Amino acid sequence: MIERATNKTTAVSLNERDAPAGPDRKRSRRLSPEQRAQDIIEKAIEMFADVGFDGSTRELASRLGITQPLLYRYFPTKEHLIREVYHTVYLNRWRPEWEALLADRSRPLRERLQEFYRDYTDAIFSREWIRIYLFSGLRGFDINKWYVKLVEERILKRICVEYRHELGCRARKKDVAELELEASWTLHGGIFYYGVRKHIYGLPVAKNKDDMINNALEVFFVGSEKIFRNADS
Questions:
Q1: CA angle, corner 130, sides to 129 and 134, nearest 5?
Q2: Cα of 87 vs its chain's centroid, Å
Q3: What are all long-range contacts of 48-56, with beta carbons under 8 Å and residues at least 24 apart?
Q4: N or C: less crowded end of the chain, CB within 10 Å?
């Protein structure tokens, strides 16, 4: 689990000397410590989405209209700031009720998946979410790998278990076979790439997102049944 960065915002004193001198001075606002910390995080999200994690704290301070020393009072290192950005963009958007939804066998699996992917894509289909996710993947950040593992363990393996149950496949010690998991990744990745084409490449996509999800599920259920049934042979 990710250890969230801690920052002692309540101990920070905001004075006029914290504002940059010269023309930029008028851009600095008098904010409470909590408001200032939130302002820094929001601007950091914008910057990392624009330029990736090579963006400097000096550039961020300039965007905020504050000095670097003031920035460091809230986030002692760039790594602290990156962790807080991840917490805001990723963990705060994760909904525990998704797991309960997927496990609710009182409803057909396809209905559950349609609702899940509608909510999930509402949470992640934004420019900053997708761009930061891709930038962090290229940098090989552990926190990105943690999120992928979270999706695999709590979402994709659950989809496999529920599909096996719906097909009436026999129980076994190893709930999910390798090819079953790959089939669920194909479903998930195809839906995710819709967001990449829209928010990263600016390419035309199906206007109705629900139709796209429905089509992806159709491909999954038709194309994967043989894979799941053969996993028992």
A1: 120
A2: 9
A3: 48/82, 48/85, 48/128, 48/131, 48/132, 48/135, 49/127, 49/128, 49/131, 49/132, 49/135, 50/131, 52/135, 52/138, 52/139, 53/82, 53/135, 53/136, 53/139, 53/141
A4: C
Closest CA to 127 of 119, 135, 118: 135
Question: At CB < 8 A and 24+ separation, what contacts does 68-72 make?
Answer: 69/18, 70/14, 70/18, 71/40
Q: Are 78 and 57 in contact (CB under 8 A)?
A: yes
Give the single-character DSSP code of 221: H
In tens digits, the chain (233 residues) has pLDDT values of 444 444 444 444 444 344 454 444 445 557 899 999 999 999 999 999 999 999 999 999 999 999 999 999 999 999 999 999 999 998 899 999 999 999 999 999 999 999 999 999 999 999 999 999 999 999 888 878 889 999 999 999 999 999 999 999 887 767 799 999 999 999 999 999 999 999 999 999 999 999 999 999 999 999 999 999 998 76
Structure tokens at 107: 């409803």
The token duo for 154 is 């709590």
pTM: predicted TM-score of the whole model, two decimal places: 0.82
